[in-house]
Structures are given as C-alpha cells and as structure tokens.
Amino acid sequence: MNNNASRFPGIYSIFLVLMAVMFLNSMLVPALSKQQVTEVDYGTFLTQLQDGEITDVTLENGKINYAAKDTKGKTALHVTGAWDDAELVDRLHAKNVKFTRVIPHENSPIINFLLNWILPLAIFMLLGQFFARQLQKNFGGKNALTLGKSNAKIYAESETGKTFSDVAGQDEAKEALREIVDFLHSPQKYAAIGAALPKGALLMGPPGTGKTLLAKAVAGEAHVPFFSISGSEFVEMFVGMGAAKVRDLFKQADAKAPCIIFIDEIDTIGKRRDVPGAIGGNDEREQTLNQLLSEMDGFDGRGGVVILGATNRPDSLDPALLRPGRFDRRIPVELPDLAGREAILRVHAGKVRMDGGADFGLVARATAGASGAELENIINEAALRAIREGRDAVKQCDLEESVEVVIAGYQRKSAVISPEEKRMISYHEIGHALVAAKLSDSTPVHKITIIPRTSGALGYTMQVDEGERFLMTREQILTRIATFAGGRAAEEAVFNTMTSGASNDIEQMTKLARAMVARFGMSGEIGMVTLETVENRYLGGDASLAASSATGAKLDAQVAEITRGCHQRALGIIRGNMETLHKLAGYLLEKETVSGEEFMAMLNGGEGKPAAVPATSAQGLGAK
Ligand code: ADP
Ligand code: MG
Ligand code: ZN
Fold first, then answer.
1. Any ligand 1 atom below 6 A from CB of 377
2. What is the pLDDT of residues 343-379, one digit of tens each?
3. Per-domain residue ranges for the chain?
4. What's this model's pTM, rounded to 2 decimal places?
5. Nearest CA to ligand 1 atom 15
6. Which ligand has the nearest atom to the CA of 216?
7. For the chain, N or C: smaller number of CB within 10 Å?
C-alpha cells in the first residue's frame, strides 16, 4: 500500500503541471500579448470618425475594432459594438478610412472532425496507457494482458561472483555439484557415452550451512545462464499465477540451455500435499507444484537444463518431487565438522584484517554445532569488538570473546554441546558402529558423526547397504536391533550409567521387535499369526487382525524378551572390545566425523588415517 500511495501523487503532479501550462497558454499569454484596447460607445466612434482620427477599421463578430489617433498623435486601439448603420460604409469611404470585415474562419470538415473527435480520443488513449503502465508497476509487473509473463531474473556468473573456493568444507556436496558444472561445460563428453545427468539435484541441510552459497558458486563456476528464484516468489495472490511463473521460467530456461535453474527454499511450494488435517488445501500452491512437476517431466536431461533446489526441510517435501526423474539426486549439506569449521573461519577471516597468530583451531573446537553462517557471524562480531576497543586488527581475544557472545546468544536455539556430553555421545555412537561391525549380517557403517542435527539427534551412525534390500532375514533383524542397542550398551559399559539419548534407539528396537512378533511370524511362542496390520486404519485397516487382550499381553512379553536378548548381545560385544571402543571414541571425539573406511581401518588395528571420503548419495538408515 505504501508503495502505491507514494506513486500516485507522482501521476497527479504531472497532471497539475499540465493543467497549469494549459491555463497559462489559454488565459495569461493572450492577455499579456494583447495591447491595451479601450472600449468606447458608438457615439464616440462616430465623433472620432467625423474628426478624422480613425485610420483603419475591422469588423469582426459584431464588434468594430479600430485604431484612432489621440490628440497627441499616438495610435490607440479601440473597440465598440457594431450598429445596424446603413450609412457607415459611406462615412468611412468619405473619410478615406481603410475598412475590412474579417471572414469567419471556416475549417474544412475533415479538420473539424479530427479536432473534435480524433484528438480527444487519442489523448484519452494515451492517458489510459499511461495509467495502465503505472498500475502494472504497482502490481508487480502484471496486468490482465500479461498475466502469463513472469520476471525470473537471469544471474550471470559476473553477478554472483562466487566460486567453490568461497565455500569451505562441504567437500562431498562440492564434488557432486562439480559434476553438474562439468556437464554444463562439455555436454558433448557426456553425450558421447550416452549419459544423461540427473535433471535435478536437491541441496538439503540445516539453515546457514551454505546451500544458497553453493548454488551461487555453481553459477560462478559454470559460466552458463543461471535462473535463480525463491520458492516464495511463486506464491502469488491469484490462483494460477504461480503456475504461470513456473511455465515461463522453464520456457526461458529452455531457450537459454545449457543453463541452471535454482529454486531456493523449495519447500515453500513443494510441501507434501496430503498432510492430514489440511482443510480445503491450498489450490494455488498445489497448482504451482503440479506445474513444476510436469515441467520437470517435460524435458530430458540431455537438453542441458539442470535444476537445483535447496531446502531446510526435506522431510516436509512432497514425495512426488523426490521420485526418480525429478530431484533424484540429493546432496546433503550438513553442519560443518571440526576441520570444516576451521576452514570456514579461515575463509571469512580472510575478509577482515587479522592480527597474526590467531588460533582458528581453538575457536573451531569451541564451536561444535555452529553453522557456517554462525561462524561468519563470530568473525564479524570479533571485528566489531576490535573496532570498539579502538584497534585496527582482530586479535585472538576478540575471537574468543565473540564465540562466547554468539554461543550464549544461540545456545537456546541450537545445540552447542559441552565437552563431557560430547564424550558421552562419542562413546554412544561408536557403540552402535562397533556392534554393527562385529556382527556378521549387518549393514556396513558408512559414516559416524557427533555433529548435532536439526532433527534433535546429537550424533548418528549411518549405515548404507551395498545394494537395495527387499527382504530381511530373522538374523538381520536381530542384528539391526542389537546395533540399535549398542549405543546404550556403550554408555553402560564405560560410564556405568544410562542417558536419555537412547530413546530413539529404543523406539526403533521396539518397532522392529514388535513387527517380528506381530507381523512377520518370527516368534516361536506365538507363531505365524498376524496381530496387527500395516495399513492405516482410516484407509480400511482390518479390525479382525487386532490382537485379543490375552495375546496382546503375550505379544508385549515377546517383544520385551527380544529386545532384552539383543541388548545383552550388544553389551557382550562392547565388553569384549573395550580397548577398541576407547580408541575409536577418542578419535571420533577429536574428528567429530569419521568415515566408514577410517572406522574399519582403525578397527582392524591400523591408526586412523584421514582418508578422502568418496562422494555418495547418503540415503542410509540413520541409526541414532
Ligand atoms: P543456507 O542457504 O544453507 O541457509 P547460506 O548459503 O545462505 O545458508 O549461508 C549463509 C552464509 O553463511 C553464507 O553467505 C556464507 O557467508 C556463510 N557460510 C555458510 N556455510 C559456509 C561455508 N561452508 N563456507 C563459507 N561460508 C559459509
Ligand atoms: Mg538459503
Ligand atoms: Zn543411539
């Protein structure tokens, strides 16, 4: 509203000026340019004529204009009303006065028509266009006629000015994105083999971890047109406009291929559509999403249009967006580990004047759980403090002080973990990994980390299957349950206590054990009896499959027995490998993230060597 209000006076002031000019033109200018004319009565005119003072006379519109010499011989203009005077011509003749009658000015009918009809019409049309253009400006570049046009901006490389060197850490994400950049540089290389790149890659991770930055860096590296738009820009006032914007964006991109389309905060339009409790739904958002989906289906990967998305909330995305052929490549962008934090601090410290000898390692160690954006903020706070203290360079003490300020500031919102807790979490996670490694049927450990995640997990052990698995044997399920128990087992073995951190593990264990008994028929006591259905009961779950209360009690007892057995098994493994546990937990505590290769190398007696982590699509089962 404020926008419009400030614009309308602009139009009005133009009008005021126009009016003023017209007024001056029609009233003042003739008045100024005209000489003084004296109005006289007819008698005076006749007398003057008689006295020979009048030199010439013009009859016009029933008025007689004439020039007469006054007594001093000066000519003055006079006017008088014409009289029905038959002798006037004779008198004028007698006095030798020059006299004329002005011929009434007759325009040709065509000119009259033009002046009276066409000119006003033209003026109205011009004014109308002028107003329309103003309105268009006020309402975000749209009017009824250009509803289908959007204004997705083109960002060329020179405009983002970012490259991969601006992004510290995040090696896996960079690796995955570098492939896309390479494809855009030399598509023929890929075409020669017949490879098509995934159409879409989705950057997902907590806020402030550099997702937007990474996308800008891709644009900077790729030297191809870069269409950047935020999800919220698609959310429009009128139904159908968001969809029109999507259509237009893809049309523009198609014309500019090879190119990149970047949709930031894609969860704004990509929210899952089937959320229960949503009454009526959001037609506009749904239409926009549907349009996006159909556009993504509409072109093939060889065309050279790559779509990047970014989101903080991958879990809220509509599954349709994630299915193959759309955002089928998912790139996790996690909170930085120790080395990553140090690197990020160095990147941003490069932009301020540092006093030599700042210990970034120490700052990095003190900021477990901080995101890239928060680390950037720490550097900036330190620089501000240096200025307050009247210095011209940032010192170590500024950094340490600002860590405290920033951490105290965000302690409530993000988890910055105390050293003692970190130690416990390390043992817990290594407990999972150790049990998994020592049991045969288990899924290989891919990555262990104690970097807290926004989901609330304080650390996690990721296991990735070599291939896709459709069946699980009884042994594999038991192994999985024991692996979940490994975290708690390590706590008990080392600290002789239990923490609340195992709650999610216990939930997973219970679910698996319950499924074994109630659905998979894997318990000797109950046998092959289904005691519950998988289906949602709102979608027609079968009530006849519900356990009777007597069987229900037996079921619970069986579940408890299975989990107890698995827990004992895990505890046995931990107790038998205490030395390895200490070594690995110490290493994890120091590194914060350990890859599967490093873990296996250390487990088999070697020292942990920081191996290069190969890029993988991380879609493991997070065992918390
Ligand atoms: P996101 O989009 O993931 O919420 P941004 O990309 O907007 O986060 O990051 C915010 C800021 O944090 C960036 O502009 C950058 O200055 C800083 N930042 C985050 N991660 C990194 C990183 N890995 N290296 C360097 N700077 C980073
Ligand atoms: Mg962002
Ligand atoms: Zn756990």
1. no
2. 999 999 988 888 877 888 888 877 777 889 989 998 9
3. 2-31+108-138, 35-102, 153-332, 338-408, 419-603
4. 0.53
5. 373
6. 1
7. N
